[in-house]
Amino acid sequence: MSALLDVVLPVFVVIGAGYLVVWMGWFAQSGVEGLIRFTQNFAIPCLLFTAISQLDLGEHFNFPLLFSFYSGALAGFALGTFGARLIFGRTWEDAIAIGFCCLFSNSVLLGLPITERAYGANALEANFAIIALHSPFCYAVGITAMEITRARGDAGLAVARKVLKAMFSNALILGIGLGVIVNLSGQAVPAPLQSGLDLIARAALPAALFGLGGVLVQYKPEGDLRVIAMVCLIALCVHPAITFALGTALSLPENAIRSAVVTGAMAPGINAYIFANMYGAARRVAASAVLIGTALSILTAWVWLGLLP
User: What integer is the mean pLDDT of 254-273?
Assistant: First the structure.
């Protein structure tokens, strides 16, 4: 119970505060949209740039960690996509958008603060190693699958061009990429610039959590509830279970397996809805999965924290 009270609930208090003030009309939806744009296009990219540029890539980018997490993520994408198509009879475009909901866990807005509160700021290195590849990997999988489905015979070069354009117009991916470049160059960021980036980065998580609550007001629990239940089951249970099993089999260090499982156990993130909206596919399912999955993760995160060493 202490894990629920001390670790999980404070994160959802911030989300709930954002939801409440927007629902009550005390904070305009336009303000929430501006706050989300600030966090996603500036604050979180600054956070990721700073973290990746200072990360010991040789120590934390290890194969067992990434294999454990991304095997679970890919399994979730496959189960979600083919489940939506073969069990529920959705179109391939809808099925891929639903699979993306199972693929893209909320690694930044939920995974980082819950891991930090549970295990301390020093336990986040493995989180950042996962996050460094998370957006590029998930968008590469989702966009490639969707563009191939929508190509209907287009040349491979045209599909590749669309994929690259969609990926590298994403601010999160740009922040990660610049962080990797600075890290590999061995050059330190000038102190005044780094201090400014740190100030922006410190606002990222609380502002993003508050904004997430505000955004969820407009997401009504509509759509096929059986499909939504499948998404929540895969995202909150199947992905972390696969990650936990593989991490244990590969003898991951305690900190690494904690970060991988907690990150894998997070609800679908806002990017799941952004992806669905970008392609006009399964938007109601994606919105409802974000809303319901975020609410359910209050309990499932508590359960996973209790199971971890």
Answer: 89
List b or e across 72-94, with b for residues whose CB sees 16 or more CB atoms inside 10 angstroms: bbbbbbebbbebbbeeeebebbb
| Rounded Cα gap, residues 151 and 112, in angstroms | 36
Residue 51 CB-half CA count within 13 A: 29
What pLDDT does 221 receive?
65
Q: What single string gives the DSSP state of each residue in 227-290? A: HHHHHHHIIIIIHHHHHHHHHHHTT--HHHHHHHHHHHTSPBPHHHHHHHHHHTSSHHHHHHHH
Question: Under DSSP, is residue 291 helix (H, G, I), strand (E, B) or coil?
Answer: helix
Identify the helix (H) or strand (E) that includes residue 300: helix 283-307
Q: What is the DSSP letter of 83?
A: I
Q: Please calculate the CA angle 308-111-289 and round it to the nearest 5 degrees.
A: 105
Half-sphere exposure of 110 (CA within 13 A, CB side): 32
Cα separation of 63 and 25, whole Å? 48
Q: How far apart are CA 282 and CA 85, in angstroms?
A: 12
**Segment holding 137, helix H or strand E:** helix 125-151
Nearest to 268 by CA among 303, 232, 229, 226: 232
Interval 38-56: pLDDT, tens: 887 888 888 888 877 887 7
pLDDT band at 74 (very low <50, low <70, confident <90, very high): very high
